[in-house]
Task: structure prediction
Amino acid sequence: MISTIDSALRDTGLWPLPMPIGIAVLCYLVPPMQWINRGFTHWFHLASFLYALTQSEFIRKGLALMGISICIGWYAAITMDLLKYGNFFKILYWNMPSSLTNVMVQDGIVHYDTWESIGTMALSHVLDTLGHPLLTYYFWCKHTEKGGTFKSLLSWDIVVATWLFSRTWSLSHSKYNFGEFHMYYIGYDVYKITEGTLDLWYPAYITESTLYFCITCWKLSNLLAGGTISSSSSLSSKEDSTPAGKLSKDESTYDRQPSLRYSESSMSSTTR
Result:
């Protein structure tokens, strides 16, 4: 069914949209204030909508990598909130749509003791799974369907672009809320978290930085290893290109020198 709709839309020539038109449509449908004081996952979903409009391979690969970064950062923060503050998925329940949050949270306290609240929590986990790991997995599957590999996903342009996209989120939110630019936004304006728990931002940024650091080291090591191998191969090829039996300069020069040979000579004696 989906493939049929896809083919029909492509046959019309109206979809996918060229990138400039796709960006224009996104900007028209999503006003600037819908980008401000929204979580990075919100930006991830808006970029996913842009991919739906344009079917850009570059955006698809970027979303797969961003999704991995978001998932490990998000669940690292939730884990720290549980281990340090004893809050079981409190960040998730506090930051769901208000229609769901109002059922689970009352007077700032998460209620785990009513079936209505428990059912809403279950729905929250379903939405969280759909919006984070499953959406990331979807982009990964689309990447592999096109013949992509993990190595091709981590090309330099994708790594740099996704990191800059994340930093743009931090820079814009820190400027809007604090009046100055910061590479890493830390505050209460984007996500609802308990007062005094700003350190929950740290695991998200640490895991993200670790991910990009490992990717960069891996790529540089491959680059250096490739350069070493290329140099060795070049040297070997030069040695192998010498025809068998061809002598060195000194050897060939030596062979061209006249050789002195010893021969016995007979002397005749005359008698008087």
Residues 201-240 form the longest helix (40 residues). Residues 36 and 173 are 7 Å apart (CA to CA). Residues 57-223 form one domain.
